[in-house]
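Data deposition worksheet. Section B asks for the primary sequence of the deposited chain exactly as it was used as input, without tags or linkers unless they were present during the calculation. Section C holds the resulting structure in token form. Section D is free text for depositor observations; keep each observation to a single sentence. Incomplete worksheets are returned to the depositor.
Section A, Depositor: J.P.
Section B:
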Amino acid sequence: MQDDTSSKLLDPLIALERLLHQPAVRADAAAVERLLHPQFREFGRSGRSYSRAAMLELLAAEDPADTSIEVVSQDFALQMLGDNAALLTYRSAHRSPDGHLSRPSWRSSIWRLEALGWQMIFHQGTATAAF
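Section C:
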């Protein structure tokens, strides 16, 4: 059962997380900089580790017009880690235009409330069985 604070934050943090799934947002360096904390770190599904600078570089190389893959996400849960930090977990996959799902993953993100608003400070993707 979620407490009142996490219940109020679940939908806004899901919306922020899903922004990072959108090609147009991923291509907008200023938008990504607002969403990713300066100390951001990711442990990717691939097993690689990424800094904020590395992630900004990778996202800048993506083609925002390429809509051949859609990120789908579901089963979100939120756990408060303090007054200004929250852990968001969920499952995701890539959906191709023919509807095929690939790259199923468990995802976890730590969001921290800063002067600019909620920023992701940590993200991890872990490969999992199809869902």
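Section D:
Residues 4-62+69-127 form a domain with the Nuclear Transport Factor 2; Chain: A, fold (CATH 3.10.450.50).
The first strand starts at residue 36 and ends at 43.
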